[in-house]
Amino acid sequence: METTVQKTTSKGQITLPKHWRDQFKTNHFAMIPQDDFLVIRPLSLDDEDNYISVFDAKRDNRGQGIPAKKLLKILKSA
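The structure assignment produced for this chain is given below.
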């Protein structure tokens, strides 16, 4: 298994390497916290019915992101 270390930007963002995005042929990924790990799992559009979107920047915030603390509050209330 390949290990890649990614640094977050000042906004807390990470970039998935292009070869991973190309390998999975999707722009949708689920992020699942498990103990002290964060699992990033590719989603196909067919799988989307199995997940809910708690925050959509276009729908919920005029295309803008939100601070991590606000997102955590949203996730905890879901």
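Interim note for the steering committee: The beta strands are 28-34, 37-43. The radius of gyration is 14 Å.
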